């Protein structure tokens, strides 16, 4: 087991360790090449330009150590009133009704929610209330399919449970029916085999956490992560003023809800009341930068500690618990030495790289006015710019 001295974050004299808070400063003070970061900023602006941009708007925050060297907003938080399927384009809002993107704009971060769920789980592992290799059935015997197949907490955190990617919970008539579907869902492949990315893993993990703690997931994340880290703009919705997402209608979506702004985009999270282990959080780039900094700081940010260093290692070591590790398709040239992060369906992503002590948060509303096939090349390019800024410093 990890050292309990390190878990508590004690220094040699027994006092609590502290890490510097983030501050804005020059690329040079961060040990980064300014020219590469100017290219990064220009390319993010280009992503939001034209009639059919990659995203209506975007915010990028990047840095090294305690220094934020890039903080830039581009495009629109709300640009479209609707989607016109006949013309295959968005119906523009009148100029006076559009909302420009700002550094403070909250985003529906979609699957970045999984990272907070994973941290909440590792916090319980650190405290001894949750066993990483314990069977889900030990905590949730009524989830009989997972119990029968021996699915473990580690399986959920590493997407090796064998559960399929999702269930149509949004089509169930009520909460009881949705819960019955989750309880009865068996793995489609043997637990512990090849990874199969699934939202159901974090939904089951949410139920495990709520059972062992007696508290709801939103409370666990607020008390254990966002409040101690000062992430005051992060929480489950509704979130008025957030970047708009989709004109959600069938057949391209799974529900008919119209243009969404401040309401969770994910249909299953919506059906579950907005609080779900796999999606539902709203956050800002600055808040997520603080989250990255805490993990880069061994679990501490300022005077707060959310995990001990050994448990940060457990969280981020390959293959990662909730986090993806060394994935060039969205991490670009940052991948290779243990970079960790995740993407979100709405257009969000973050990467933190302990080898270079860097972080990149790129939030965009790529599904505004409607979802398209995913394209993570802009995310990978942005991460590559940061990697080259380290090398060129």
Structure, explained:
It is a single chain. The protein has 393 residues and is α+β, with helices and mostly antiparallel strands. It has one domain (4-117, 219-391): 3-Layer(aba) Sandwich (Beta-lactamase). Helices cover 33% and strands 17% of the residues. It has 15 helices and 17 strands. It has helices spanning 4-8, 27-30, 34-47, 113-127, 136-139, 144-148, 153-157, 175-184, 199-213, 217-226, 267-271, 285-296, 309-316, 328-331, 377-391; strands at residues 23-24, 57-64, 67-78, 80-84, 89-92, 99-100, 107-108, 235-236, 247-248, 258-259, 281-283, 300-301, 304-305, 324-325, 340-344, 348-353, 358-364. Strands 1, 2, 3, 6, 14, 15, 16 and 17 form an eight-stranded mixed beta sheet that branches. Strands 7-11-8 form a three-stranded antiparallel beta sheet. Strand 16 (348-353) and strand 17 (358-364) form a beta hairpin. Helix 3 runs antiparallel to helix 15 (377-391), helix 4 crosses helix 10 (217-226) and helix 4 (113-127) crosses helix 13. The protein is globular. The two termini are 39 Å apart. Mean pLDDT is 95; it is low at 1-15.
Question: Low-confidence spans: pLDDT under 50, at least 5 residues?
Answer: 1-15
Q: Helix count?
A: 15
CATH class: Alpha Beta
Stated plainly, the CATH topology is called: Beta-lactamase
| Radius of gyration, CA atoms, in whole angstroms | 20 Å
> How would you characterize the largest beta sheet?
8 strands, mixed
CATH architecture identity: 3-Layer(aba) Sandwich
Mean pLDDT across the residues is 95
CATH superfamily: DD-peptidase/beta-lactamase superfamily
User: What best-fitting shape do the alpha-carbon axes yield?
Assistant: globular
How many structural domains does the protein architecture include? Answer: 1
